[in-house]
Structures are given as structure tokens and as C-alpha cells.
Amino acid sequence: MSDTPKFEVIDRRRMKAEEEQESKPAPAPEPAPAAPASTAPAPGPRLVVSEPKPEAAPETGEEEAADLPPAPTADEIRQQKLAYDAASQRLEDLIRAQNPGMGAPPPVGFENLVQQFYISAMIQMGAGGQEGQRPRVDILGARTTIDLLGVLAEKTQGRLSEAEERMLQTVLSDVRLAFLELTSMISLQAMQPPQPPPQGKR
Predict the structure, then answer these.
(1) Runs of H (alpha helix) within the chain
(2) Is residue 21 part of a domain?
(3) pTM for this one?
């Protein structure tokens, strides 16, 4: 606590010297700590006291945000987008050279994003498997995909067209119903007693 009065005295002296206001004599040995005071902002000793607060905020508050790399600048985003578009066009030209009759692909839109989530969720719940084979179910992965659709619905609320909103809610309802049916079947199977293994012929 002995450091705080020293900072206050130094800040007052600097402000008095700059603004030519009341000048009070200060002890001779105190010009030595002028180096740490020069790093503090000019407005006064309160800012010196508040300097530790920005350091404590990332530790107690948003630690995850502090671990993230800095966001790209607007110029970097523009350059990356141009490079991506050029690479995508070269790929499309190569594909058209191998398939001359193929037309241009339709532009990717919001409905493609929703369909991608829908297909992923249904495959994770066992749809799309080959006939005669037992479907492979990833119920936890399906739950995550359905939750992502729910996040998408929340974050885009009020920003979609009527057709987009109807499509998203329809898809979300379908996958949730499929999830309920599947989890009900899993629960029933878990409640059934285990079947004894078939006895072999003697």
C-alpha cells in the first residue's frame, strides 16, 4: 500500500507541471520512480489504480476468447475470398473439361446448409444403409447435429424469409421426431431381458 501514495504524488506533480497549476514541493528521492509513472496515462492516479483491472479481466472473464488467435483484417478476408473464388473456378473448369455436357452448378444457399444438417442427422440415426445390413447408429452424434440445427434456428430467428423459416422448422421437426422414435426403441431394447444364446445341435 506504500506504493500507491508514491504514484499519486508523482501523477499530481506531472499534472501540475503540465497544466501550471498549484505546485507543491516533493521529496527529492521521488523523481526516481518517474519511469513507472510515465507508463501510466496522464489523467491521474485513478488510472494507475485501475491498471491491474484489465489484466484481471481476461483471467476471470473470457479466458477462451483470450486463447483465440486475432481475427483476420478486412483486407485479409477480401484477399482470401478472392483466392478461394479463383481456386473454385479453376476446379470447376477442370470438371467441365472432363464432363463437357455438365451445366453450371447452382449457387449454394441457406437451404443447402439446412439439407446438409438434415442428411447428416438422418445418416447418424441409421438411414441410408444398405438393405440386409444392420444400420449403424450414432445417437450421440445425431443429437449434436440436431442441437446444431436448433442453434441455427435460434441465431437466424427474424432474419430468414418465410420460405427459409418454414423449411428450417420442418426439417428440425422431422429430425427431432426421428430422434424420439429411435431413442424410444433403444429404451425398449434396454428394458428387455437378455436372450440366452441358441443351443447348438448335438
Answers:
(1) 3-19, 34-39, 45-49, 52-60, 63-67, 74-98, 110-124, 139-155, 162-191
(2) yes
(3) 0.58
